[in-house]
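Worked example

This section walks through a single chain of length 208. The input is the sequence exactly as stored; nothing has been trimmed or padded.
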Amino acid sequence: MTNTKTGVDQRLVRAIGHPLRLRLLTIFNERVASPSDLAAELGEPIGNVSYHTRILARLGCVELVKTKQVRGAVEHYYRAVVRPIFSDDDWAELPPSIRKSLAGAVLTEIADDMGAAANEGGFDRDDVHLSRTPLVLDQRGWQELNDRLQEIGEQALEIQAQSAARLQAEGARDSEAAALVLMLFEPPTAQGKTDDRKAKRERSKKKK
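Given that input, the structure is written out below as tokens.
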């Protein structure tokens, strides 16, 4: 891969160059886990998960936290030390193939989270937020909205840090996990939506 003109972390670019590594890195950012745990969770061969985890470790994207003896074998547990986050300038420098891989992995995680949360009552609270707002924007409006969404993401992390401080100081146990999803993208055309629905119906028929 050629070097970019900006400060894009090339280790991170190489790390997310494979869709499985991107999914692994995403999960290692959420919690400490072993390749064995993630192989079972993702339905992937343990050899593949272990191999790509070792690559992430070699690139300095994850670090070994602990080892544990499990059924006569030693399991290695890792956590992420970098987050797969890019600025607008960095995103513009990424190859289209990497952008598609990154977007696909994030959307897969979002879809999995939303489906499981809906089944478990994750949207039953009185104070959830769920909205879809079609818009027509000029370039300036698009950039202004994009900037606001980035600010919300940064504020969410600040609120989380403040919550953690209160929970620790007060010895509270009523912490609640939350998921925040922010998106701004070009919607599909009517024909694109029709084609996508047809493709889903065809895949559904083949599974039966």
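What to look for: The chain has eight helices and two strands.
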